[in-house]
Structures are given as C-alpha cells and as structure tokens.
Amino acid sequence: MTMRLQKYLALCGVASRRAAEKIIAAGRVRVNGRKVTRMGVLVDPSADRVEVDNLIVRPAEQYEYILLYKPEGCVTTMKDPLGRPTVKDLVRDVGVRVFPVGRLDRDTSGLLLLTNDGELANRLTHPSFGIEKEYLARVKDLPSRETLQRLAAGIMLAEGMTAPAKVRLIKGGRPTSLLSLTLKEGRNRQVRRMLEAVNHPVVSLKRVRLGPLTLKGLRRGEWRRLRAQEVKALRQLAGLT
Ligand code: URA
After folding, report:
1. Counted domains in the chain
2. In terms of domains, do 77 and 35 share one?
3. Ligand 1 centroid to residue 191 C-alpha, Å
4. Please, where are the H alpha helices in the chain?
5. 220 and 114 in one domain?
6. 79 lies in which domain range?
7. Is 183:135 a contact under the CB 8 Å cutoff?
8. Mean pLDDT for each 10-residue chunk of the chain (241 residues)?
9. Integer angstrom CA distances of residue 96 from 25, 100, 180, 192
10. Which of 56, 79, 95 is the last residue of a domain?
11. Rounded Cα–Cα distance for residues 169 and 143 (Å)
12. Best mutation site among 77, 159, 189 for ligand 1, i.e. most ligand atoms within 8 A of its Cβ?
C-alpha cells in the first residue's frame, strides 16, 4: 500500500504533515537514496527506504503484551517441527507477531508473557534484573524442613549452584505435597531439576506469577492484553522508563 511521503513522515512521528512538507522542501528527505523535494511522492512503507537527515525513519512500533495461561501439553514456541500444539495456536487472534518471554516446559502450565517488545523481553529473562517467578509445585512425598532450607539456600545442579530462592510448604502430605518456589533465575527445567536433586520429583508444575503479573481472572488456555499500568510496572522493574 502506498501513501504520500508527507503523510508517511507524520505517521513515523517525524513531524506534523504540514511541517513534514517543509522538511521535504528543504531537501532533507531521501527515498531509496534519492533526494526528494517534490510534494506528493508516493512511498510504499514495506518496500521503500525513507531517510530524514540520513537517518532511516519507520513507523513507531505497536507493541503488544499478552498474558497467556498456558495449559499443559503445548510447547512454548511459535512453530514446532514435530507438529505438536504450540502457544501460537492459542494466541492466533492477537493480530501481530509476538514471541514468548522465556519458556515453560511442555508439561508445565501457567503464566506466560508474549510480546514483540524485544528489549523488555531480554531484560525480563536476564537473571541480573532478578525478576521473580513464582511456581506451585506438587511433589512426591513430604519434604523435610531441612530439605526446604536446602532448596532455598541453593542446590548444586550440573552447571553450578542455584541462586537463593523463597520456598514455602503450602500443604504437606503423602503421597504428595504442595510447595511454592520463587526464583529470580530461569534455567532450563530449573524447578524440576532442583526438586529431583532433593528426591522429591515434580508431579505437576504451574507458574503463578511473573513480577507483578498473576493469572487472576484467566482460565487455562485463555489470554488477555496487559493493561497500560501493568506494562509500565514491568518496564520499570526491567529498568526501562
Ligand atoms: N522450571 C521448570 O522446571 N520448568 C518450567 O517450565 C519452568 C521452570
């Protein structure tokens, strides 16, 4: 789809349409490397390269932030070579391409954030920002107090010690108990491996919180857009303003 150059510049936030005309007349704009001073030149935003003062201009990206209650049995990827159900199947109606922030195992359910805001996604998954991820784990048997303390202090995994975590016994029992674990890192299958290491393998696992976000109001397989306040809170946590 083509549009007039001055309209495109306005759409990109360079200036108002009227002011954009002045910028064009002043010879500051190039289209595919050629200086344009004539009004009314048509550009195709998906094919033409538009520069103002030698800087490429593009429309402001529309960021989307989707909170999904991922069910078990679907893989955290947008395309699965094995043809299994993916999270993409669940967020088809969003309209733009979004990508999962981090990963939940196929057999883990719970909160998954998807976005096209790459900078935020990188920060949320980087351990140096210490964003809390809270899991409910149903485990085999009844972990002792000492075991809970070990999990909280750090467990030796193949690649090294885990960082300190918050661990709480929600309901102890046999044959299974329910634990809450809050981690600030997100290694591959971390919760499962930590609990395996203390001989209380996971029976089922669900992520219930990411920073300030919870699953409240969502049912399995449902998603919703984040509210502006939630996006703001997340960006602040990640050191972006
Ligand atoms: N830890 C795990 O072991 N699995 C997940 O899906 C998430 C955290």
Report:
1. 3
2. no
3. 5
4. 5-11, 17-25, 87-90, 118-125, 145-153, 190-197, 228-237
5. yes
6. 65-127+212-237
7. yes
8. 88 82 96 94 90 87 91 92 93 84 96 90 87 97 98 97 98 98 95 98 98 97 96 91 73
9. 35, 13, 34, 33
10. 56
11. 8
12. 189
